[in-house]
Design goal:
elongated, disordered N terminus, 9 strands, Lipocalin, eight-stranded antiparallel barrel, 47% strand, alpha+beta, 20% helix
Length: 204
Amino acid sequence: MHTSAGTCGGRNRKMKDTTTAGMRLITAFLIFATAGSLAQTRYIDRSGKASFFSSAPMEDIKAETNQALSVFDIKTGEIVASMLMRSFNFKKALMQEHFNENYVESNKFPKATFKGKVTNIGEFDIKKNGKYSLDVVGEITLHGVTRPLHVTAEAVVENSGVKAKAVFPLAVKDFDIDIPRLVVMNIAEQVEVTVLFSYQLMQP
């Protein structure tokens, strides 16, 4: 098998970009966690839910996790989120194994991350119970590839807590995930992603 220098360089850059993105997210979390004087504006969910659904001619595939972590600053509108790829559970053990080893390569790229901002945060009021539509713009990193992401999240404020849900599509090819021809009829080219966070005030 022939491997060109360009391919090796691309993989090295991918690894470097993933490490950099991970460090940036960790730094953001450290800032959130240590800035006690501003803790009144920061909300956290350490057990958020995320799932993705693939509908293909041969079968439907769904995977879920309840170990997603997210912090939401209701003053600035900043949002960060992170989840371990190996925390996703599948109905079929074999599909879960293929997902981690062959598709998202969880050993190389253990996390999916998001960093963004609510552009209409001025319309959000934590002191007023009700429903809010949040316009979220940012970047998602998956399988070592970072792409822009623009979604609408539906949020509900109740008793000083925030529940936020977003549903959006992701194209597998956009994240350099290769699907073997043998199973191309089993896995959709585009998957539907759902995230649900129940934020509570972060304690200083």
